[in-house]
Amino acid sequence: MRALGDRDAFPASDLGLRKAIDKAEPPGAAELEAIAEAWRPFRAYAAILLWRGGGGG
Known about the structure:
The chain is mainly α. The protein contains 3 helices and no strands. Helix content is 46%, strand content 0%.
């Protein structure tokens, strides 16, 4: 995401991102993609924040 400079890249299937949203029942990739629509065009930054504060690497 950062290396290519794509500020809207969002790996919705990433388990860490899904768990950052809900640890007990992580949403599916399609559901997370729908949630992330509101974050366009900065979804890559949202992903980094979710990884730092939540369930991911």
